[in-house]
Amino acid sequence: MRLSTLYERLTGEERQALAKAAGISAGYLYQLATRWQGRKPTLSTMNKLAGADKRLKLSHLFAEFSEPMQKARA
Predict the structure, then answer these.
(1) Res 68: pLDDT
(2) CATH number for position 45
(3) Inside any domain, residue 44
(4) Among 62, 67, 66, 23, which residue's Cα sits nearest to residue 46?
(5) In a domain? residue 55
(6) Could you tell me the CA-to-CA distances from 24 to 13, 17, 31, 36, 68 in Å, in that order?
(7) Sign of dihedral through CA atoms 5, 44, 41, 25?
(8) What is the tens place of the pLDDT at every residue in 44-74?
(9) What is the domain extent for residue 58?
(10) What are the tens digits of pLDDT across the range 3-16?
(11) 3-state secondary structure of 64
């Protein structure tokens, strides 16, 4: 599952718990999930996210963050 998809489905508390389990801040999790300013996690962080939630697979995260960013529509 894509991080962006999972993030949309989680409650605020679940997002906090995922961030804590992955050893990152909730703010950074938001930045990654929304690709804020082109943010991309390191391989180490992707591995931690995959370990923190069984719905996230390293291969899916790698594919998600390897895709080019879509430009916002005006």
Answers:
(1) 85
(2) 1.10.260
(3) yes
(4) 62
(5) yes
(6) 15, 10, 11, 16, 24
(7) positive
(8) 999 999 999 999 999 999 999 998 877 544 4
(9) 3-66
(10) 999 999 999 999 99
(11) helix
- How many structural domains comprise the chain? 1
Query: What pLDDT sits at residue 72?
Result: 42
* Cβ-contact 56, 34 below 8 angstroms: no
Tokens of 28: 């950074």
Residue 32, pLDDT score = 98
74 is a domain residue: no
72 part of a folded domain = no
pLDDT confidence of residue 67: 86
**Are residues 41 and 61 in contact, defined by beta-carbon separation less than 8 angstroms?**
yes
